Amino acid sequence: MTMNNQGRPTRTDGATATDARTFTGNKALQIEEALSFEFGDFAGTGVDMPEPEGTFDRLGGLNRNSEIGLPGLSEPETMRHFVRLSQKNYAIDMGPFPLGSCTMKHNPRLNEKVARLPGFSDLHPLAPQSASQGALELIDALAFWLKEMTGMPAVAMSPKAGAHGELCGMMAIKSAIEARGEGDKRTRVLAPESAHGTNPATAVQCGFKVDSIPADDTGRVDLAALKDKLGDDVAGIMVTNPNTCGLFERDIRAIADAVHEAGGYFYCDGANFNAIAGKAKPGDLGVDAMHINLHKTFSTPHGGGGPGSGPTVFSEALAPYAPVPYVVHKDGEYKLIESRKAAKADGDSAESFGRLTAFHGQMGMFVRALAYMLSHGIDGVRQAAEDAVLNANYVQARLKAEMTPAFEGYCMHEALFDDRFLKDTGVETIDFAKAMIDEGYHPMTMYFPLVVHGAMLIEPTESESKRELDLFCDALLSLARRAKSGDEVEAFKAAPVHSPRRRLDETAAARKPVLRWTPSNLEAAE
Ligand SMILES: *Cc1c(COP(=O)(O)O)cnc(C)c1O
């Protein structure tokens, strides 16, 4: 296997175990499924209707002269096709999804029910404001609670994902720096080595140079190294807190003060707000801008389950540069301020950087997030954060018996392990993760954060019961013992054996994606 310098394999050497072969390719009741274009009958159609009578051709001679090229499937074939495809998607409604940093928690059905109320679900984004007062009130209420929980005076609701929220925050920072006349001078953004990949990507997208800050040996930002890097060319810093090692940055206030003293802004990646919601307010920590992933902290479905939503909160210093649109509530009426011109007309002298996206954000997610907040109450949100941290520490404490936590001490909402426990076993992190699939678990986050060799980052969230956590831990402990026994290297290298597909060439899939089906059937039909 070829490895990169973080110990992540960049090329597999192929699966080694023999495949259990069946005539159909099916594995028990897991049914193989080709593309509908591959098995559809292009000549026929799935429905049998009589030629309509009494119609005449209104196409003025522009009639199709070749087959339309869509697969003709019967209704039952069509149903089966999509149901089988849906079963290939592992989901939080199917089992634990321990991906660290992704916060795959249960999406309460109450939220789904509320989001489907016709008044919300049927509302068109271009409906007049007079007919959308309830929706605007909901955005305003959610904005209020986000500001309240973060202790920040302003929020932009339109960003549509965490990374989009980062872009929003960094664009505000850029505007603020340009307004100070320092646009040409402050071109550097600092980010810790353990930063989520979206942080440096966002900074570069905004035209900044990224300078990486090392971690100390407790997995946190090295404060002295950070101070050495500060200067009058620094626009700001991007720090995730709790960080991607699942640890709270103890020096967070000192970091904020040092950056402010140097004239920079403090962007906090708040994707992991779920670990501190109701416990700590980023506004008290000196944060200038922070996105909140509603799809993590407030349980709205994500990944294959739905779109994200990443509202960004702002300090007094950055609030004037926040994007449009935003909602104002005046004289018993809700109004969406949609442009800088409208803001000026409304008496707002702020220098908004403009518009980030069409419309006003992910309305369906706003409804779910507010339903989550209101059904939990602030005590419930706080308890969710406490339970998330408790569950992660429970997993860390149990797995410590066979696996090696990357850092000493308690963690926050996720438990980070390295691959020291696999040393000299011949089994790598990737093999361990693939063996988890055979046990019926989606693997944890692997090889991230990069500061740890062969990293395995587990985030159980608060929504797993003790029974589920115990089964999960028992399964991982058993895998760790098998790996260390030395007798099963082959079995680990061959895993997963029970899944419909075995080891895929992920590098080729990422570098040379095949995005277009080649219509060999069509060519044959022509
Ligand atoms: C999830 C996450 C992001 C990105 O959020 P998206 O909604 O996937 O764009 C950024 N930073 C951290 C720390 C995250 O966990």
Structure description:
This protein has 17 helices and 15 strands. With 526 residues, the chain is α/β, with parallel strands linked by helices. It folds into two domains: 111-369, Type I PLP-dependent aspartate aminotransferase-like (Major domain) (Aspartate Aminotransferase, domain 2, 3-Layer(aba) Sandwich), CATH 3.40.640; 379-511, Aspartate Aminotransferase, domain 1 (Alpha-Beta Complex). The protein is globular. 41% of the residues are buried. The site of pyridoxal-5'-phosphate (PLP) has 14 residues, from helix 6.
Quick rundown:
This protein has 526 residues and is α/β, with parallel strands linked by helices. 35% of the residues lie in helices and 11% in strands. The protein is globular.
Strand runs, count: 15
Mean pLDDT across all amino acids: 91
CATH topology of the largest domain: Aspartate Aminotransferase, domain 2
Domain count: 2
Give the N-to-C terminal Cα separation.
Answer: 45 Å
- Write down the Rg: 26 Å
The major β-sheet equals: 7 strands, mixed
The number of helical runs is 17
Task: Name the structural class.
Answer: alpha/beta
